[in-house]
Amino acid sequence: TVGAVALDMDGNLAAATSTGGLVNKQYSRLGDSAVIGAGTYADNDTCAISCTGYGEYFLRNVVAFDIAARMDYGAKSLEKSAQEVVMKKLVERGGEGGIIGLDGEGNIALVFNSAGMYRAWVKSGGEIQTAIFE
Amino acid sequence: MKQFALAIHGGAGTLLPEEITPEKQQAIDEGLRAAVSAGEAILKNGGNAVEAVKMAVISLENCPLFNAGKGAVLDHEGSFELEASIMCGETGEAGAVAGVRNVKNPVALAEEVLKDGRFVMLHGEGAKDFATEKGLELVEDEYFLTAGRQKQWEAARETGEMLVDHDGERKFG
Q1: What residues are paired with B11 via a beta bridge?
Q2: Helix, strand or coil for residue A22?
Q3: Does A100 contact B at CB distance below 8 Å?
Q4: Three-point CA angle A52, A83, A130, nearest 5°
Q5: Which secondary-structure segment (H or E) carries A99?
Q6: Contacts for B41 with CB less than 8 Å, ≥ 6 apart
Q7: Shortest alpha-carbon distance between residue B142 and chain A (Å)
Q8: Which of A17, A115, A123 faces B14 most closely, judged by CB atoms?
Q9: Is the ipTM of this complex over 0.90?
Q10: 3-state secondary structure of A6
Q11: Which of A13, B64, B144, B166 sits at a 20 to 30 Å CA gap from B20?
């Protein structure tokens, strides 16, 4: 699975996700990557999110929207909302994977409960940074 | 000063540091940097966030190291069923495709669905017909196949289980 989140110079957010799914998947199984609110979500008032991991858990827990909702209804930061969902709620429910997120101020969240997540990011005026593990 | 920001991922999993060779880490790093550069080029020139995420994801779909587009994993039958979605935070418009085959860049098809505006989600043969109508590039299954994924698929078939793409030995029942 791959994904991207962006904040443009007009202050607009967007998110995108793409995947081949699980190896050896059967019965035309679908994961969360094509499901708005589960694997992908963007709303200028809260955040842009793209998810990766074992899709069934991201579907059941509507992960991308849950993070946005905690920002919206709970007035929490992107980082705190992402930590609550990925590092607490998903772990308690057996879900493995991670998210990349961005809010309207340009704050980036790169949160994962798996051993690693391939990730990279850049901000205006800054250098590209990449990472795989913690 | 107006600012922009972009982040990407190339997947998460239980792969451990000792399972990635320095050469593979270098190749992954290059693939990630190329994708960020593709999105950053749009943003730097005042382009919009939807275009930026689309270009970054297309770059990742075209890189055989990641499970999307070229280098995607194989399904049980040994073919490639792809999924993608894209969403605009300004308008709330969204496009998504699922279970779609032979479309070189599924995220570009998802963006066509978003732009078309009549639907949010298309799947299967209909999504492929829509891709043809919109003039998107179609490719044979062979385009997506890589030796590494073939090996993963053969291992998973033996156990009859499903496997997340970035897993060394871990399998999910």
Answers
A1: none
A2: coil
A3: yes
A4: 55
A5: strand A97-103
A6: B55
A7: 14
A8: A115
A9: yes
A10: strand
A11: B144
In B143-168, which positions are buried (b, 16+ CB within 10 angstroms) versus exposed (e)? ebbeeebeebbeebeeeeebbbbbbe
Mean pLDDT of B52-57: 98
Are B166 and A116 a contacting pair, CB within 8 Å?
Answer: yes
Q: Look-up: residue for tokens 């000063």?
A: B1
| Chain B interface includes A110 (CB < 8 A) | yes
Contact A106/B at CB under 8 A = yes
B81: Cβ contacts below 8 Å, ≥ 6 apart: A20, A21, A25, A28, B75, B99, B100, B101
Q: Could you give the 3-state DSSP secondary structure of residue A9? A: coil
**Nearest one of A123, A70, A74 to B43, comparing CA atoms:** A123
In tens, the pLDDT along A10-47 reads 999 999 999 999 999 999 999 999 999 999 999 999 99
* A94 inside 8 A of chain B by CB: no
Token pair for A94: 């057996």
Please state, in angstroms and rounded to a whole number, the distance separating the CA atoms of residues A26 and B99. 11
Asked if B82's CB is within 8 angstroms of A18's CB, the reply is yes
- Catalytic, A52? Answer no
